[in-house]
Amino acid sequence: MKEHKSISIADQIFEQLERDILAGKYQRGEALSELGLAKQLGVSRTPIREAIRRLEQENILQETGRGLLVVGISWEDMMDMYEIRMQIEGLAARRAAERITDAELAAMRDTLDLQRYYVEKGGESNSAQIKNLDSQFHEQLYQNSGSKAYCDTLLSLHKKITKFRMASVSKKSRALQSLAEHETIYQALAAHDGEAAARAATEHVRQARERIRTIETKEN
Amino acid sequence: MKEHKSISIADQIFEQLERDILAGKYQRGEALSELGLAKQLGVSRTPIREAIRRLEQENILQETGRGLLVVGISWEDMMDMYEIRMQIEGLAARRAAERITDAELAAMRDTLDLQRYYVEKGGESNSAQIKNLDSQFHEQLYQNSGSKAYCDTLLSLHKKITKFRMASVSKKSRALQSLAEHETIYQALAAHDGEAAARAATEHVRQARERIRTIETKEN
DNA sequence: TGGTGTATAAGTGTATACAGAAATACACCC
DNA sequence: GGGTGTATTTCTGTATACACTTATACACCA
What we know:
The structure is a homodimer of 220-residue chains. Chain A has 220 residues and is mainly alpha-helical.
């Protein structure tokens, strides 16, 4: 379904650098140079520069006048993003519940069913697939809020969170719990119950944060 | 106090295009071309492209594969941004109240006093100055939340709002009311009262939205 | 008259060349 | 030996050239 308009080198580099930075592959404060990246990636500086400008706009890279500084996001930043999402995603869900169409509901239902299929099937090989479907459900929710502002804000936060340190090890029990929460959100949307949708979405983000927090705490 | 690192042409073009797009100088859906902009602005395509990439990242410009599409923001988008800010700015204010230092309080006090000076002095010539100080107060608040996530999110929303259609005609009565609300926020911060700060900040954004809404409604 | 095919124009994507600034290294002088 | 001045290297910023894609216009043919 996705538009494949040839995907320029600049886009690929943007994606790769973003992923690497958010995944923590580069140290916070580490210095990079355009020429260095160009040589390393085997392309000219032009696409590198365009990728860099976008990363700067996202505030995960910073120009210093002489070289680039990796800003990235910290653990605290991510917790804060969850906190912000808890509020905004709830409001977006309320709106979605009030305006969602049957076709949009059916599409979310499909996403949910497919996700359930992969989760119950289990296996590490499907974890990428599951993560994509999880993201897709949220993106559909954002889209169905009908608000560009909500959609843009939430997409930006969600993208950073999902790429953070290759986050969220997929354990089946957690995946099932997350799925159940999605189901609750869906039911509220289907019932066009704004209040319930808002509560469910907020609670889902809160739980997701807790799941991540628990993992990290154990690691450290 | 601001860092003046020579301000590249690319940066200037970014600022200008962003301002023009958000101010409504370009029609929503209007097509632009790199070469056209380059000729019009008398520079090469290189800085144009870098500006465009940043604007794309902000979702106010969109690549179509053949030319650019002006997306901009609509009136509804801006109302939604206020709604989001109502929530997030409240939380940011709560945090700021809990951690703000005396030095930071003094800096906000200075901003406030200077704004009051210009507001009471009156006159259209100072409206730009007043707007800047107003923005500065909010930016200080964001900064003092101590959270990169809150700061980034709020700065992005605030920037778009302030540039929207050259928003907010400055009437002295409204400016005074806004100032009084800033004062309330400041008092809560100074008292390190998180709850009060959150309430005051949220209410201030709500009122700001109402002030804008009233103006627009009269215009249409 | 309508459709098709080609030529042309316009636009983006990428590489490269060049200018200028800034840090660094090194030699020279005291 | 230390400090200073200069040369060199290493960056970024900008312009330009070229490849490639696609829309468009126009002529030709059925």
